[in-house]
């Protein structure tokens, strides 16, 4: 057995060497053919490529698929990296948007607190919200102004944009504000531009209900809601919000005040409106007042032009007679 194995090795070794030499010669000849710059050799190369390459498509399929798969993987890596960058930029943009909205709201409140134009008889004092004593059954906040600042029960409070609530309970240094969303809150309002009157009643939700509408058909979502001043509860003309409609079809008010960020509240010193005790004096002159005499050419208050001319002619005739 050892002899047969040695004989096979003696034949295999020279044959392997011969194949290697032939392969090297073929590669060298192919190299020389591919490097020779001659028209005849160029035609030979073209004929060789036309004869060999089309028949080798089956061998190029896995190579082409591998190359395409590698390129697709690189493209996927680039897309994943771009997606991560876009998500990071989107998070930054959301943070910037939130910061911009907060700054815009704060700027609007501060500008409104400084430049608001109200009734000249109305003055105000600004307090800081110290605590939120809201609950599922009662919604209110605590201010750092009280009786020492002249705060009285019933005065209106605003956040610089819209009405927030009214003072309900004062201490020496603090005061409690019942919000419009509280169930005990009821504010008479006017809806613009229809001029309808209603009552905004809180129900512990973010959008209070509108009750006792005169004509609901004239009210549309988006209409402006302001205080009417009826009942001497609040001064007239304070912005409350806009009309909205819930899923059940009931009219509600989307409040203009930002209840999520109540930081500063303006308390309006409202001592009541001036009462007119003699409304007739605004139209009818007081007794004893002199009235200008009518001239001949003037028209009577309820006379037509023809009647005026007839009366003038008759008076002239009487004078001539």
- Write out the strand line-up for the largest beta sheet, numbering strands in chain order: 1-2-5-4-3-12
Fraction of residues in helices?
Answer: 25-40%
CATH class of the domain at 123-269: Mainly Beta
Stretches where pLDDT is under 50 for at least 5 consecutive residues are: 294-321
CATH topology name of the domain at 123-269:
Thrombin, subunit H
Please summarize the sheet with the most strands.
6 strands, antiparallel, barrel
Shape annotation: rod-shaped
In round numbers, the mean pLDDT is 76
Task: Figure out the total of helices.
Answer: 4
How far is the first residue's CA from the last residue's CA? 177 Å
CATH architecture annotation name of the domain at 123-269: Beta Barrel
Order of SSEs = HHHEEEEEEEEEEEEH
- Provide the structure class: alpha+beta
Using DSSP, what is the number of strands? 12
**How would you classify the quaternary structure?**
single chain
Strand content range: 15-25%
The CATH H-level superfamily of the domain at 123-269 is Rod shape-determining protein MreC, domain 1
Radius of gyration: 48 Å
Textual characterization of the structure:
The chain has 321 residues and is of the alpha+beta class. Among the domains are: 13-52; 123-269, Thrombin, subunit H (Beta Barrel). Helices cover 38% and strands 21% of the residues. The protein is built from 4 helices and 12 strands; from the N terminus they run H-H-H-E-E-E-E-E-E-E-E-E-E-E-E-H. A 6-stranded antiparallel β-barrel has the order 1-2-5-4-3-12. The chain has a 6-stranded antiparallel beta sheet with strand order 8-7-6-9-10-11, with no helix packed on it. The chain is rod-shaped and about 135 Å long.
């Amino acid at each position: 057995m050892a002899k047969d194995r040695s004989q096979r090795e003696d034949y295999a070794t020279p044959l392997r060497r011969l194949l290697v030499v032939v392969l090297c010669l073929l590669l060298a000849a192919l190299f020389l053919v591919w490097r020779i710059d001659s028209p005849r050799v160029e035609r030979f190369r073209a004929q060789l490529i036309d004869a060999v390459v089309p028949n080798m498509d089956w061998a190029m399929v896995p190579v082409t698929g591998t190359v395409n798969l590698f390129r697709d993987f690189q493209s996927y890596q680039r897309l994943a990296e771009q997606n991560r960058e876009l998500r990071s930029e989107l998070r930054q943009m959301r943070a910037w948007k939130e910061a911009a909205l907060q700054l815009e709201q704060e700027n609007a409140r501060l500008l409104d607190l400084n430049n608001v134009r109200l009734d000249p008889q109305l003055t105000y004092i600004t307090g800081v919200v110290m605590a939120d004593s809201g609950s599922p059954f009662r919604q209110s906040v605590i201010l750092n102004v009280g009786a020492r600042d002249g705060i009285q029960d019933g005065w209106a409070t605003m956040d610089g944009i819209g009405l927030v609530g009214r003072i309900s309970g004062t201490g020496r240094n603090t005061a409690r504000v019942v919000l419009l969303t509280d169930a005990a809150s009821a504010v008479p309002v006017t809806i613009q531009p229809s001029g309808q009157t209603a009552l905004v009643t809180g129900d512990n939700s973010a959008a209070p209900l509108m009750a006792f509408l005169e004509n609901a058909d004239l009210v549309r979502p988006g209409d402006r809601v302001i205080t009417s001043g009826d009942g001497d509860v609040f001064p007239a003309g304070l912005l409350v919000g806009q009309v909205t409609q819930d899923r059940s079809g009931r009219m509600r008010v989307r409040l203009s005040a930002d209840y999520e960020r109540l930081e500063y509240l303006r308390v309006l010193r409202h001592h009541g409106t001036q009462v007119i005790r003699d409304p007739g004096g605004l139209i009818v002159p007081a007794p004893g007042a002199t009235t200008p005499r009518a001239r001949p050419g003037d028209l009577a208050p309820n006379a037509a032009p023809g009647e005026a001319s007839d009366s003038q002619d008759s008076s002239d005739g009487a004078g001539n007679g």
